[in-house]
């Protein structure tokens, strides 16, 4: 059965294929994950451990034994299944109900998921991949960033930070016929950076087709779409997505962007510092009071 068919349940199938191989404690956790797929989207490893009479370490080991990179990966799989079967308003109500009404509980849920996402992202990014991404960006004539919806913020942020380092950079956040106009200037020596976490639009295929046609290289920030698009791009960086929706879509990608920007600045300190001085000089000029000048009239 294909993953795209309505009856698919990859998480349940994965658990069924591994269940007999697990030791008793991990088997108990796996059965709980199977039977409470919707609830675990919003649960921490500690909460799942408490519900199964085990520990958070056992929960994490179970997720890895089931073939996932960790609990965040398993929760993302459960989240993808939930998205297909529930309305957005129902998912929002579930998030609110699970987080509770108390301020401390709300913050704990958000910060816990943020920590899990960022740690998992760091674990999945190898030093070789990071260095390769820096090499790619350093060699670009111009860096063209693309993102839609919440991901536009990541693309805009990268463009802003790159310009402040003295790099040629521009943002594409258009769709439809306007996208066609924005693609006209793309050249072989350019690098396109795509922020496409989980939803695939036809515009992305148009971008990739045109980049391939002109010979431009592509760096992709994504999560669920990595298996789909990996063979269409030059390099991928995994930015772990939220399974529950507690934290913003671009959280992991923004942090990775900060890492890349710092790496680029370290590789070309003179350009970065001179551009920073120019920026501060321009800002100072903008805040200086101007003397009024009076026009002389001819007598």
Brief descriptors of the model:
299 residues; alpha/beta; Arc Repressor Mutant, subunit A; 2 domains; five-stranded parallel beta sheet; 60% helix; RpiR-like; DNA-binding transcription factor activity; MurR/RpiR family transcriptional regulator; DNA binding
Strand composition percent: 5-15%
Q: Cα distance, first to last residue? A: 92 Å
| Parts with pLDDT < 50 across at least 5 consecutive residues | 1-7
**Can you tell me the number of structural domains?**
2
CATH superfamily of the largest domain: Glucose-6-phosphate isomerase like protein, domain 1
Helix percentage range:
55-70%
CATH architecture of the largest domain: 3-Layer(aba) Sandwich
Output the CATH class name of the largest domain.
Answer: Alpha Beta
Anisotropy-based shape: elongated
SS-derived structural category: alpha/beta
Order of helices and strands: HHHHHHHHHEHEHEHEHEHH
Number of helices: 15
Strand order of the largest sheet: 2-1-3-4-5
Task: Report the strand count.
Answer: 5
How confident overall, as mean pLDDT? 86
Instruction: Please summarize the sheet with the most strands.
Output: 5 strands, parallel
CATH topology of the largest domain, what is it called?
Rossmann fold
Rg, nearest Å: 24 Å
Architecture overview:
This protein has a five-stranded parallel beta sheet, with helices on both faces. It folds into two domains: 10-99, Arc Repressor Mutant, subunit A, CATH 1.10.10.10; 127-285, Rossmann fold. The radius of gyration is 24 Å and the shape is elongated. The longest helix has 22 residues, at 103-124. Helix 10 (151-163) links the parallel strand 1 and strand 2. It has 299 residues and is α/β, with parallel strands linked by helices. The chain is built from 15 helices and five strands.
